[in-house]
Amino acid sequence: MHPYRGRVTEPPKTAEPAPAPGPAQGPAPGTPAAESPPRTPAAVRRRATLAGTAVSVLLILAIVFGSRLLRDFDSALLPYAVATVFLAFGVAYRYTVWISAPGARRLFKQGRRSFFSAANFRKAPTALPKMTATYLGFQKFLGARSHARWAAHQLVFWGCLLAAAITFPLTWGWFTFTSSTGSGPGYEMRIWGFKIIEFDALSVLGWLMFHGLDIAAVLVIAGAAYFLWRRMRDRGAVTGQRFAYDLVPLIALVVVSVTGLLLTFSSIFLHGGGYEFLAILHMVSVVFTLIYIPFGKFFHIVQRPAAVGMQLFKYTSRRKDGEALACRRCHEPIDTAPYVENLRGTMRDLDLGFDEWAEYCPRCKRVLRGNAYLDHVKKGF
Ligand code: HEM
Fold it and tell me: Strand pairing partners for 188?
């Protein structure tokens, strides 16, 4: 007899769960996208276009005024600046579509309520900064999958953040580096025209200032190379992965970083040999990657911050209620009652028709499903 046969105490009234009708919150990173996503309603598309246009116009205004009416704007960087405007449009458009889906809307609303709750702040003033650091900054939850994946993700994450912190303000003309002699070594850095620091290009600080992007590229290459290597040899990953969704983002990160490093290599070791060709290659790869961000796996970069509010909601309801809801079958704790109720609400919104299954722990769900299969599909197996 199957070890779990006959041990089901309370089988759910509903049938075995059917697959969810398309990704309400977009596929999680590492999960292939659904085959044919449902068509977005016209009203949502209109709202999303409006949001995209508003954010792009705001960014253009921020570029014009931040660069002191384009006086500090470097026209050689125009393609990058234009790509960031498209990026702003794409992110706002997709985000609006995303939070218009029932599941994501509920998550977003509950998250926002917890995020801005004065009561939560009074009860646990350090919870929000702590969660932002551990969940968003250090992604501690990834360590449970594997330490290597966590470390690789940290390299990619900090490398990209560093690169974005340097390049975005530069392409917008917000930062300027000027030397009174015209060629250094004394430089001053200005933000929006205001002098921030003076430094010597030959000092350690000067080296870090001018090689920040090389450091970022090394971090990103190390992390993305590990993920690529894993995707070549891990059978679980190889089975489910798709080229455009899983491999293109990693290849894009490697191409951007390698062509960026080659620019430094060309200017230091080749006296600028091949620089122009490399600069075009680098620009094309960066522009493609920026425009791709809202439409593929990279979208989780903008999706994930919304989950901090939800983490806070789980944390505060755990503190408030103390006890976790017990699994209906094995009586092991699942999560807090408000959290499970929120999940059930989402399932009801999506017309999934099996929301009572949320009251079973993942293990019991698998057991019940296996038993239903044995009973109804493969009798006598
Ligand atoms: C600059 C920001 C970020 C970048 C550039 C980035 C990049 C990436 C890339 C390239 C992958 C794909 C790895 C692969 O599939 O082989 C990935 C996976 C993932 N990311 Fe991010 N990410 C960022 C921020 C975040 C944040 C803030 C979170 C969560 C708080 C997060 C959570 C995840 C998760 C859960 C995975 C799946 C990891 C795995 O399968 O091992 N990411 N990220």
Answer: 178, 198
